[in-house]
TrEMBL record:
GO terms for cellular component: cytoplasm. Keywords: Lyase. It comes from the Bacteria. GO terms for molecular function: 2-oxopent-4-enoate hydratase activity. InterPro entries: Fumarylacetoacetase-like_C (IPR011234), Fumarylacetoacetase_C_sf (IPR036663), Hydratase-Decarb/MhpD_sf (IPR050772). This is 2-oxo-3-hexenedioate decarboxylase. The lineage of its organism: Bacteria, Pseudomonadati, Myxococcota, Myxococcia, Myxococcales. Residues 76-257 form the Fumarylacetoacetase-like C-terminal domain. SUPFAM superfamilies: FAH (SSF56529).
Length: 261
């Protein structure tokens, strides 16, 4: 940790920006040596603020697990963020975009774990610990000016740009299908906007779980039983506009939709 980094103060700054819906400059403008471990310490302080406000931790999200997203954001390694109950939007729900700054939406696959996962795990162990897999979408909303940041520490500190998420009502046993070969199609107002195959996510969405456990272990943490895990977007994100109805159809997993007002 560099001498000038005060994780609690920086977390407060980002949390105020989120709650007051205002943009702030990337932290690395002021702290060019901010490291990824510093940034996770800031993220953790940010979670404490949300828990103190009565929110409950329900899971984690992986980000930058696809080549398309890494290219879009010009960053080169996966990151994680936290998901709370307040971030969940029900399927077919309507999101008020006035509650955000500059939201984007992206197509994902999500898991729910039934058992704790810890440290280095194999693909089979990760899959065996999951009870369900879902079609899902994440609504991102960076707290940084113009949704622009140029470093991993910035995005990690800002809870990996997470804002809201939606899971399909339909859930499936993860062993019922080959999770690497599912066609994913995201429609905006019935027009196909982005599509990809599910192996765009980490080469295999289950590997996002494996990577998440490794990243958590570096911080001495585990993935608790009952966690929802977003495996990461398969394509670039779409700028969510008022009036948009966005629907994701994942072969074998069904559909999930959300609208913006
Ligand atoms: C970072 C978060 C990326 C994903 O699914 O790849 C992410 C960002 O795009 O600002 O959630
Ligand atoms: Mg995402």
């Amino acid at each position: 940790m560099t001498g000038t980094v005060n994780p609690a103060e920086l977390a407060r700054r980002l949390d105020d920006a989120r709650r007051e819906r205002r943009e702030v400059p990337p932290l690395t403008n002021e702290l060019p040596t901010l490291s990824v471990p510093d940034a996770y310490a800031i993220q953790e302080e940010g979670l404490k603020l949300r828990l103190a406000a009565g929110e409950r931790l329900v899971g984690l999200k992986m980000g930058l697990t696809s080549e398309a997203k890494r290219r879009q954001m010009n960053l080169d390694s996966p990151v994680y963020g936290v998901l709370t109950d307040k971030m969940r939007v029900l399927a077919d729900g309507v999101v008020s975009l006035a509650q955000g700054i500059h939201p984007k939406i992206e197509p994902e696959i999500a898991f729910r774990t039934a058992r704790e996962l810890k440290g280095t795990v194999t693909r089979d162990e990760a899959l065996d610990a999951c009870e369900s897999v879902f079609a899902a979408m994440e609504i991102l909303d960076s707290r940084y000016r113009d949704f622009k940041y140029f470093s991993l520490p910035d995005v990690v500190a800002d809870n990996a740009s997470s804002s809201l998420f939606v899971l399909a009502t339909e859930e499936h046993p993860p062993r019922a299908m080959d999770l690497t070969r599912l066609e994913m199609k995201m429609f905006v107002n019935d027009a196909l906007a982005h599509s990809a195959r599910s192996d765009a996510i980490s080469g295999d969405p289950v590997l996002s779980l494996v990577q998440l456990c490794e990243l958590l272990a570096k911080r001495g943490q585990v993935l608790p039983a009952g966690s929802i895990v977003l495996a990461g977007a398969a394509t670039i994100a779409h700028m969510f506009q008022p009036g948009d109805r966005v629907k994701l159809v994942v072969e074998g997993l069904g559909a999930v939709a959300v609208s913006a007002a």
